Amino acid sequence: MLASTFITMQDNSAHGEDSFLSKDLGNGEFLDVVLDGVTGHGGEQASTELRDALDAAEFNNAEDVVKLLTEMNADFYSVGSGRFLLTTVSAVLGRGDKLQVITAGDSPVFLINKDGHQRLSGNAGGFLHVGVARAIGASENLGEPAQVEATPSAGDKLLLATDGITDNMSIEELANVIRNAATPDEAAATIEQTIQERLQEGRVPETLGVRFRYDDRTGIIRFF
To answer: pTM of the entire structure?
Structure first.
């Protein structure tokens, strides 16, 4: 796996239901995860418990991640019957020269380079009900999580984000900020400043719906 640097960013002041994990697996390999707990449905407990389970497990490939998600889905459903203990999850496992992306829900994953950006998984700028049907804990049998592989090149940049970020900045804005930043820290600072300014105004660009959406926001930015 290519050498990389990263930053995590989170503001959980709206509901306290987002979680994240960025785990160093050695030799440049990693596991990056963002989790968006479903508000009013035990989201904080679900996202925290799933994060801890992902942190404790060992993964060789995407199938290992899917197996754990399936097991956690069964546990959550047995307690919450599809109404409680619900969270979305987007994970990127960096193994060998590949990025293996696994998503249940709507938090998007983007690969960004000097020529453009590619949505690897999830939906940008969609409200949470779009992804709830595929959330962990929502159904007795977990629908097949979306999976995709990509091969990063030196200079590529990776973004995982919950909708507290993507509902208030377009992917074009996010990609432009990240593409032009010298470091992940610089990119995160610019994103946070932009969102804070929009929060104060209560407005976002018309293409995002005009009204600012106050929600937990979590992101991981990784530069290769």
So the answer is: 0.94
